[in-house]
Amino acid sequence: MDERERSNDVSMEELKALVETAGGEVMGFVMQNRPTPDPGSFVGEGKVQEIKELAEANDCTLIVFDNELSPTQMRVLTEETGKNVLDRSGLILDIFAQRARTREGQLQVELAQYKYLLPRLTGMWSHLVRQTASGGPSPIGTRGPGETQLETDRRHIRRKIQKLEEELAQVRKIRTTQRRQREKNAMPVVALVGYTNAGKSTLLNCLTGSDIPANNRLFDTLDTTTRRLRIDETLEVLMSDTVGFIRKLPHHLIEAFKATLEELRYADVLIHVIDLSNPEWREQARITDELISQLKEDNTPVLRVYNKCDRYSGVLPHGDDVVCISAKSGEGTDVLIEKLSQLLDKGNRQVKLVLPYSAAGLVDILNREAAVLSTEYTDSGVEIECIVKPELFGRIKAYIPGYKEEKEDWED
Fold first, then answer.
1. Per-residue DSSP letters for 26-94?
2. Strands, E assignment, 197-348
3. What is the pLDDT of residues 210-267, one digit of tens each?
């Protein structure tokens, strides 16, 4: 087993928080140290009995494992303990199912659930098939129709997965159209990423004056939330809050959430929010960095924003792409906005033009290639206020009332 997959006190505390987020109450926990998991029951036979006795003594209805269980292990543990058994992936999916609000988010959760269920459905039937194949009598309910039902269920789930993937592909198509519209309007995108509960939603609220729910619980944000932020007189950006990352995040869940996380691939800047008050912030930042590297474009700049710096007693991190803030109080956010301004400065200018009707053809060009803020038709011509890129500025500067070329220092 990969050392990073092993459970420890930190991951168990995180699992406890996940259970509470899902609406459960933790009555106790058990850990076992062994070189490799037991192929049949994940933990040893004696440990299974200990878990069973602990669950019965505390009147528990559910046993949750910190690692991902195979279909066979889940079935054996359920039979041996007489309780419902869930692994970390299943628990995360359950939380996602509770939290998703938009149709897109619900589609993504449903797709991940079916991909999680498919191999486990097979595992539920495999022990019956093996028993018959070894010469034993066919158990009641598995003769003919039983296996036919298995194949029917498999085909049904595969059809559902295909249908959901098609619907998500349509979502991506719509997002691409919206993205092109943003690019036409010269509207940069800034994506907030980070470990779950790092304070991304609080930061979005602080910067944009929004009132997005920002609670102290894991996976509080699932559906991408986007708000406008005015950086300065000539620059406005779209800020997207994305789902938080977590250790041992199921691979198929990342795949299912590509439609949401692809915002990272097309963002102009990523803000990696790190909870500096968490003792595990270095490990959380490493996990997030690994996932970011899979999803972002190579040349996308990343700002590391250390949140809750007012609750940190050590030496604050520093560097060119580092900002220390408190999203709750607003401390340091002015520095963050200044850094964003520097990263996003592409030489765009906000101008007011008066186009004579003889040059009205430029109106169409401006509508296509600039961010037009207002248009008014008057007796003297077309008055347009817009934000233009440097390559377009040279064509329209003659129509800026009172415009004069700036002289270089060496010119008289």
1. ---------SS-BTTTBS-HHHHHHHHHHHHHTT-SEEEESSPPPHHHHHHHHHHHSSEEEEHHHHHHH
2. 225-232, 235-241, 269-275, 302-307, 322-324
3. 776 555 556 655 556 788 888 876 678 888 887 777 777 766 677 666 666 766 777 8
Which is it for the CA torsion 19, 107, 249, 115, positive or negative? positive
By CB neighbour count within 10 A (0-12 exposed, 13-18 middle, 19+ buried), where does 266 fall?
middle
CA distance 138 to 132: 5
Are 87 and 74 spatial neighbours (Cβ–Cβ below 8 Å)?
yes
Report helix, strand and coil shares of the chain as percent, to nearest 5: 50, 15, 35
Which tokens is 140 given?
């009641």
Name the token pair of 86: 């869930």
> What pTM did the predictor assign?
0.69
Q: Can you give the length of the chain in residues?
A: 412
- Sorted by sequence, the CB contacts under 8 Å of residue 169 that are 6+ apart come out as none
